[in-house]
User: Which sequence fits this backbone?
């Protein structure tokens, strides 16, 4: 089975066909097909390394958009009555790899 390393949103992911994963938000419609730059491809004994990317593209289908769970950031200074609580929910896009 083919395995590839793609780059999107400043991060790199190891993917296979049929894999679904959450990536940084992409401004596109649900159901749209997106092509990702391929950095590395492994197919059994064959090993291709891009310099910096390969000509092949990995295709994925957008399944949904959403927000991750809230991350709480708490600042506190002792004896000065200073306390801050800030939350953040990072937006994401869930994709399924359809073709390598």
Assistant:
């Amino acid at each position: 089975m083919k395995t590839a390393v793609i780059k999107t949103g400043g991060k790199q992911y190891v993917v296979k066909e049929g894999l679904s994963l959450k990536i940084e938000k992409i401004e596109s419609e649900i159901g749209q097909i997106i092509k990702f730059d391929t950095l590395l491809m492994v197919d059994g004994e064959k090993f291709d390394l891009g310099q910096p990317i390969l000509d092949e593209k990995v295709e994925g289908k957008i399944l949904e958009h959403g927000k991750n769970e809230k991350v709480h950031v708490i600042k506190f200074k002792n004896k000065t009555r200073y306390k801050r609580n800030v939350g953040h929910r990072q937006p994401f896009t869930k994709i399924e790899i359809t073709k390598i």
